[in-house]
Specification:
Blueprint (H helix, E strand, L loop, with lengths): L8 H23 L4 H54 L5 H82 L4 H13 L6 E2 L1 E2 L2 E2 L8 H9 L12 E2 L2 H15 L2
Helix pairs in contact: 1-3, 1-6, 2-3
């Protein structure tokens, strides 16, 4: 096999157009999937975000549960002190000691009241967060079911054309190897910037396929001679003549037939 640098311009043009035929078929296969791949990705991102939000709710609820436990411990401790101080009141020597113990008892009773108030507040917050979390979990569950359906739909579409796509990808690599690196780079750049993925096009009624700008007769003759790579100044696409298009379309029908 000749090195890519040794092949003629005509051979380069044929190799480019053949590669375009293969890549266009790959585009057709992928286009049959429509927006499904994007929908699946968007659903996965949305679910991930909601699950992180649910994790934060779980952490907040745990933190408030811990604070409720702490307040119960404060209450139990305060009750123990109240019993202790009341017992001590029975054996005081004077009113001053009795009053001091009474103030301690009053303080611990206030601690109990304040802790009870905080427990109710935390309980209300937990109830609200649990309600929101239930709604969140329901939404996550619904989205996961929807994602499962969309994934199955996408997998069905992919499986229908998987073998053909793998075959064409191999052919794309094979035909890309026939083109020198610089020219292949130009082809890929043009394809990337083209809405329909076309980098190499033939002429239709004197204009590049998909364009309304007619090529001058002299330029059409140059294209037909296949002596140099000609790029359309309006569309930026590589141009080939009708005869080459027909010949390569016919020849490649047997190559990419699946």
């Amino acid at each position: 096999m000749a090195k890519t640098n040794d092949i003629s311009v005509e051979e380069k043009l044929r190799a480019l157009y053949d590669l375009q035929i293969i890549d266009s078929r790959l585009d057709e296969i992928r286009n049959t999937r429509g927006e499904l791949p994007i929908e699946v990705e968007d659903l996965e991102i949305e679910i991930e975000g909601l699950e992180k939000r649910a994790e934060k709710f779980h952490a907040d609820i745990k933190d408030q549960d811990d604070q409720i436990k702490t307040k119960h411990e404060v209450i139990n401790h305060a009750k123990g002190l109240i019993e202790k101080y009341k017992s001590q009141q029975d054996s005081v020597r004077n009113n001053k000691e009795f009053e001091a113990l009474s103030k301690e008892i009053e303080y611990q009773e206030l601690e109990i009241q304040l802790s009870d108030k905080r427990i109710k507040e935390f309980g209300a917050k937990i109830a609200h967060k649990n309600e929101t979390l239930d709604e969140l979990n329901t939404k996550i569950s619904d989205l996961k079911n929807h994602l499962k359906f969309k994934k199955e739909e996408l997998e069905d579409l992919v499986s229908e054309t998987k073998k053909e796509e793998e075959y064409l990808l191999e052919k794309s690599k094979e035909y890309s190897a026939k083109i020198d690196e610089r020219l292949l780079g130009s082809y890929n750049r043009i394809r990337t910037n083209s809405p329909n993925g076309l980098a190499v096009v033939g002429l239709e009624r004197g204009a590049p396929k998909g364009s309304f700008f007619t090529i001058p007769p002299q330029k059409q003759m140059e294209i037909a001679q296949r002596k140099k790579i000609i790029i359309d100044e309006h569309s930026g696409k590589i141009l080939v003549d009708d005869e080459l298009v027909m010949e390569e379309n016919e020849r490649m029908n047997s190559v990419i037939k699946f």
